[in-house]
UniProtKB/TrEMBL annotation, chains A, B:
The protein's name in its UniProt record: Putative GntR family transcriptional regulator
Transmembrane segments: none
Keywords noted in UniProt: Aminotransferase, Pyridoxal phosphate, Transferase
InterPro entries from the UniProt entry: Aminotransferase_I/II_large, Class-I_PLP-dep_aminotransf, PyrdxlP-dep_Trfase, PyrdxlP-dep_Trfase_major, PyrdxlP-dep_Trfase_small
GO biological process, one term: alpha-amino acid metabolic process
Named cofactor requirement(s): pyridoxal 5'-phosphate
Organism annotation: Paenibacillus algicola
Location of the Aminotransferase class I/classII large domain: 43-340
GO-annotated molecular function: pyridoxal phosphate binding; transaminase activity
Amino acid sequence: MQYSFASRTHSLLTSPLRSVQKLAKRDSLISLAEELPAEELFPVSALAEAAGSVLSADPRSLQYGEAEGYGPLRQWLSESWSRRKGLHMEPDRILLTTGTQQAMDLLVRSCTNPEDTVLVENPTSPGLLQVLRLHGVRMIPVRSDHDGVLPEQLAELLLKHQPKLFFAAPNFNNPTGALWSLERRLEVLKVIAGTSLLVVEDDSLGELCFPGSPAAQPLPPLAALEERQGEQVLYVGSFSKTVAPALRTGWAAGPSEVISMMTAVKLMADWQSSMLIHRMLHHLLLSRHFHLEEHLSALNREYVTRLKLMDQLLRRSAWSGASYELPKGGMFLWVRLPGGLSGDVLLKAAALKGVSFLPGSMCSPDGENHDYIRLNFTHPGRDELMLGMNLISEALREFTARS
Amino acid sequence: MQYSFASRTHSLLTSPLRSVQKLAKRDSLISLAEELPAEELFPVSALAEAAGSVLSADPRSLQYGEAEGYGPLRQWLSESWSRRKGLHMEPDRILLTTGTQQAMDLLVRSCTNPEDTVLVENPTSPGLLQVLRLHGVRMIPVRSDHDGVLPEQLAELLLKHQPKLFFAAPNFNNPTGALWSLERRLEVLKVIAGTSLLVVEDDSLGELCFPGSPAAQPLPPLAALEERQGEQVLYVGSFSKTVAPALRTGWAAGPSEVISMMTAVKLMADWQSSMLIHRMLHHLLLSRHFHLEEHLSALNREYVTRLKLMDQLLRRSAWSGASYELPKGGMFLWVRLPGGLSGDVLLKAAALKGVSFLPGSMCSPDGENHDYIRLNFTHPGRDELMLGMNLISEALREFTARS
């Protein structure tokens, strides 16, 4: 039998992202392509304790809950943001999602029609690009310099396209690791003030802020800097990178009307997230067996060590002519390959040797950045990282030797 | 600021289902409106044991997994269906979702364009109707008699509309509780054979099959009866009603091409479900502390007791003129109100007294069935059920006394 599919789904099956993901699943392969945290640091026993406590306390932990998510966990987020980030968001302006990816999908389903125009910080995360493509939304890339997106270009694009949405990640962009300066954040907010633009701020990596850098304290998110908080910025993030991905818990927080519509779409999309997980996570966050801030410090100390190792390996001769900026946080190193070599071409050679990474073209609305690659340094342990980088170096050498 | 929303989202916010759901959340209210299992019977301690074991065995339980879901759990489903239902479906034809609702949403996103025509067994579940409405799909209702949907009408509609999809729930339809006869199942399969129709079989309630009825063993699902299994039937269901809703675990299983496309859409929609939950559930299903079939027997014994109580209460004078058929399984009683009274009107009066139910109009693509109501008998305990039914009776008496 022939099965017929929705017209825009074509882009999903032919997506190169999908082949990289498949590649990365092969057991023999070392993956520097994925977005995985270090599993050695998961709070395993504290979560086991949380599961036991929550289940024995109340069988309703296993029942259906509310579409917007477990109230006390939203309350915890509200208080934590207020204390740690200067972001004041009432719990009823917070929707718990199963992660940043779902938050983006719900938002785009709530707010856009096909052919609508949106602005996208360029480069950006491949997951977001997938969502926008499936919805048939027109993406306009916004350029950046060292301090963040360019306010003049943003102003120009606003005038020209009157876009509904602008997707940005000021704290450790995926893939570049870029951190917008405080001044730039304020300038951007000034540019959008009075327009009907909604900024979607992805802060998924914002807590991965490395010690020893000038920005050892995270900068306030855009959402905390706007004059009337919760008006023009939707604040999106998750516990996937800070506690554990399998908790499938993230959020969107912002304008009540938008949150309310996203909640209605969530009801339809998956009814609600897991009450059991929400209660476990809430229990964990209040538990004396776990301190989020200490946990984050340990995580960041480990990640910066892995980043330094990767930096050392990139100084070897195979990489001469490559360029990159050392990020102050996040999970990725964004490397420009020498001599205009294409990341897609290098990936094919590297995969044959048993290692993968993300080619830069997958992080761009229009397939630009083809001479960049994204390397993940948070998941592979020391040995794996060294072996993986050696294999990429080998592949690289084959190309540079030729030219 | 004015926020602008996607054009079809309008239907979500104005949905009467939403107001019933809001109503049902008020603590003072007894709800016979929802689709909740009895929480007294959740396998709480076996799940706590599972959580502890899984977490201590492998920290990767907290890591990202695969979009299609945890392999051993798909393997378990495959074997269990094969043994218990005569349904032979390889694990790679199974996608784990967060429930039936997500399975329906992913399917509709994968297979339909706006304005496409689909057939829907009438009445049907309000959750499915929401999905189809948001996607802008044209729904054609298919009528039923005591044995299931009418094959002649189905044949006629197939010819006339050449629909892509047909949504049906042969085992204990939500809301009616109807069970298609074996003969009717075979007739329906004959009608669709050779066409390009995909039947989406919702078997969410199939295991809630009550003792003492001729159908004390569930009838084989359509998916098990088609000549080449996995060709024209997509088999959808979940653990929400059999183990616990907060596990957020369901499935879609069927044609590889369809499963593969739904998996790609899931990657984009929420990346993947929770590996932790999948491993916990798999551990539970293999555990000596839990036997699924015994658990289902206990559940069904309890539910049939509650159903009998509801049946007794419906025989009181307030309900004279109402009609219903006692279901052989499922979670709902579908009652036709006396004298053409509207379920929506009765709900308003009942809600003022502190009780809610689902008006029939919400279960129909075109708002038909307005003189029906859907009563849930699985969640409320004995006292709550009696009080709730008394309050509805009171409201009902006010209308029948007038006429």
